[in-house]
Amino acid sequence: MREILTVQCGPYSNFIGSHFWNIQDKDLVYQPRPVLPPTNPNVLFREGQSLNKEVTFTPRLISVDLKGGLGALPRYGELYSVEEKDGHVQLWEGDIRKENRSEAEDEKDVDETEVASLGNYEFWSDYLVPRLHPNSNVVLEEFQKGNTLRPFDIFGLGTRADENEEESTFESIRFFAEETDHLSGFHFLSDADSGFGGLAHKIKDHFLDEYPRKSILSFPTWPSLYSEPSDVPFSPLRNPTRFLNISLSLYYLHESSLLTPLSLNPGYFPLPKKPSSIPGMGIDHLSLYQSSALLASAIDTLSLPWRLKSNPAPTFEFVDALSIRGRKCLTLSTAMMMTSSDAPHIHSLTPGFQFSPDSQIRIQSAIQRGTPTKFDLEDYLKTNFPQSYNSYRVVQDEGSPIGRPYPRIFDSVYDKDERMNMITSWSSSDTMEKILNDIAAQASKLNLNKMSRFLEAGLEEDEFKEVINGLMNIADDYSNRCDL
């Protein structure tokens, strides 16, 4: 078995992460089931013992957020009290106990909260079902959630994070990594549109320095729409600021093993563009809770191959295959089908990309999860992408979980199992050349001298030009001049 360590850097990444871990929790077997899940929970969860010698499972997870970003969730978890002495936190070195409750009881409070909040949540911790280890939460005490006078909204603020908080993040990574037998790599989600992009850059460098042979699967992400504070005057630099943060994030995270931008917003600049509608779904794009759910389901499905109990495929095989000729920037598309008769509409989750036979896909990993359908994945790939190298896998088990606290975003009637057939395509496409060149062209139009907070946070004109040229150089890897 090869374990995966997950890092979620920023509030939107944590909203995605809460859905992702709830999906994993649905596949933990607490009582007899007619169909056993195909996945090995030890890939993502850590097994341990409580003080009462009870077997426990807690996510192998580091979650990074701002002060006040955890909501009602205690920083060091809910299942053990933590005493402080002389200002230093004394942590028990063992594992967290998952309460011995039924799955329905475990989610009762979450469901009641959802009814009261009309299907929305302010904090990602409000609907997170699994309990966390004391080393999982890292809080940036220097910055406060919702503080409009001193926001954490500039890439450079993340690269200049407090040394103690940065070291706390690295120590948590080290703690979880050292207890694994065969660490395969990292699921790395990061908010690309804020200071968390800069912090993600530092964490990525730490991965490269300390774990150079491990796979870094990076998913920079940002919301599909923004709910702007009503008490803050409109700033014409708000959207250019987010765009420049995203540009810097994509450039610096390109050193990852694989890089897959994720958002339900169809573009990069100007932000926000109107989110494209997805057939069969009604998503409130101003709700981080709702817009993050589909992204979590897609990550769950694409990662199935290295989480299977039987014949798992290691992450490095996907890295080697999908990043051929240095093409590390990938796209992710998905379709969810309520019934076996549904025809899939595969929708892109990567801004600027459209999943179609014209999208110039060179290589893709396609996964179909769920009960048998009339849809033939192999035939679909051969017909629509005859020039592509298509790797596919059909996992005929239960579909992807969409039971509460997953949001009610589908138009169809939910069945009693509350699961859905799902398809993902994780692909390398020549379209990425245009996407990256467009980002570089838009970035070159920005007047850095008018964006003083970037200058104050350490971004210099020479580095800015290096980023623009670097994005264009990366784009060249996808041109016809670099045929496979």
From TrEMBL:
Keywords assigned: Mitochondrion
Superkingdom of the organism of origin: Eukaryota
PROSITE patterns (alphabetical): TUBULIN_B_AUTOREG
Domain DML1/Misato tubulin span(s) in chain numbering: 122-308
CC per GO annotation: mitochondrion
A Pfam family: Tubulin_3
Misato Segment II tubulin-like domain residues: 2-105
Listed InterPro entries: Beta-tubulin_BS, DML1/Misato, DML1/Misato_tubulin, Misato_II_tubulin-like, Tubulin/FtsZ_GTPase_sf
Protein location: Mitochondrion
One GO biological process term: mitochondrion organization
Family recorded in the similarity comment: Belongs to the misato family.
Protein name: Misato homolog 1
Gene: MSTO1
